[in-house]
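Session log. Operator J.P. requested a structure for one protein chain; no other inputs attached. Running the standard single-chain path with token output.
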Amino acid sequence: MAYKISDECIACGTCVDECPVEAISEGDIFLIDASICTDCGSCAEVCPTDAISPE
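Structure written below.
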């Protein structure tokens, strides 16, 4: 199960450095590539707006 980023994302970039497999890409709202995500949850732990959750 991959994680997803909701509209609550403020594109701060905190999650990008936490992803061990570089599954997060930048944009107005950041995106997680579900085919790469290993479901580790590191991104969700550091998100200041709780915008990241399991799909």
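Operator note: The chain has a mean pLDDT of 95.
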